[in-house]
Design brief:
Elements lengths: L1 E5 L11 H15 L3 E7 L2 H6 L5 E10 L2 E13 L2 E7 L1 H4 L6 E2 L2 E2 L3 H19 L4 E5 H4 L1 H6 L14 E5 L7 E2 L3 H4 L13 E2 L2 E3 H8 L2 E4 L2 H6 L10 H6 L4 E3 L27 H13 L10 E6 L8 H11 L4 E7 L3 H13 L4 E5 L3 H10 L2 E4 L9 H7 L3 E5 L2 H6 L11 E3 L4 H15 L2 H13 L5 H18 L1
Parallel strand pairs: 1-2, 1-8, 2-5, 8-9, 9-13, 13-14, 15-16, 15-18, 16-17, 18-19, 19-20
Antiparallel strand pairs: 3-4, 4-5, 6-7, 10-12, 11-12
Helix pairs in contact: 1-19, 11-14, 12-13, 12-17
Length: 482
Amino acid sequence: MHIVFAASECSPWAKLGGMADVVSALPRALAKLGHRVSVFLPYYRQVAKSVPNPPVVLPSVTIPFPSYNRFVRILDGGNKGGVQTYFIDCAELFDREHFYETPSGDYSDNAERFGLLCRSVIEASKMLGVPDVFHVHDWQAAMLPVMLGSIYYFDPVLRHVPSVLTIHNAGHQGWFPPQTIEELLLPPDLFTVEKLAHYDKVDFLKGGILYADAITTVSRKYAEELQTSEFGNGLEGVFRQRSSDLLGITNGIDSEEWNPATDSHIAAHYTPENLAGKKECRRDLLHAYGLENVGDDTAVIGVVSRFATQKGFDFIVEIMDRLVQEDMVLLILGRGEEYYESLLVEMADRHPGKVRVQVKFDNVMAHKIEAGADMFLMPSRYEPGGLNQLYSLKYGTIPVVRATGGLDDTIDEQPNGGGNGFKFWGYSAWALFDALKRALETFRNKQEWAQMMQRGMAEDFSWDKPAAEYVRVYERVIQNRS
């Protein structure tokens, strides 16, 4: 079958979060199964820097607005791994410093920007090849199913083409003023509580949920959580309404990039059968953080994350003064909210022998942490899917996580270290501390710890199984439309 992906991020060209990794890896896995896959992505300034002057496939696609037209070029991003990438070039909307926002707030015309993305994908597909199914991602592409079900409803070419919406994070929904309906030339009757209206705003994600033929999210547990007031972000009733069409599919990981047996970013390679190289990776990581003479019995705990309350940094801050009394060192990498950046640096200054912080995003250092740490800390308040816990398992770095979303699905704590990691429940910093204490106690038993590492490393985190699940979703929605 022919599957068209529409998304606002895709590695390696444009990435802020895990969606970019999924939109990169899942199409390749589908192509390996013999399917034709196309991916559409905005031609951001950052994309243009890495792919300057790509061939023009369509020189002019007209996208109408109430008092003017915009003219979009479709550029050839190349075919790699059987996946054809196209860039949507509209310089006045996408040639900007950031993807969605500046430090002072969201771009005021985001509704127009991503409404244009959706309509451009539809129009370009009519000329480049109508797919069997559209697969769209998060609120930025969620208006595509809405458009298919409204302004394109009577199009004889598109009328029977279904859509699948994948939600990577329902905390971001795309809320815009009521006049957005008119600005995108959508039918006025879409602005009702039963359709796109939400707290007197147009909610892009709500529209996608209601109009897509199927909704997936990135873990089984998160699909359940979305139907609760705690995690539904005001859309829990809509998710319950579509519960029979809502499915959680756990992400895979890119085993070409994340593999300790071949990783070019780490100091030594290792496998579940021969873990010797991990000790060299540990020494290399400690050196990179300026720590020497750390004994083998001292646990190295790594964190790679956006610094935010959602990621549980308030828990980390709360237990820090008690945690540094344990036989461990804590190595943190990331950026985020200025409050946490300043606070973590200040704590590292107070405990230089125990805590080190690098305030930056650094892919090489992220690989070094996954390979060199003994444990990986993810105390997220919510985590729809999560990838770092999967990278950690692959690298024999034992995750310590909060039992939410994909973290709960993939991490299994058993008595006496019999599982693949450690987890805690509830919104409590001291529940996190208790989980860390259990991990530190198990770490002292080297044989038990090595067995736990090997269990995690032996698990299959490839995209083969998730890709097959998505194919079944596509087949079902296509069948329902026929």
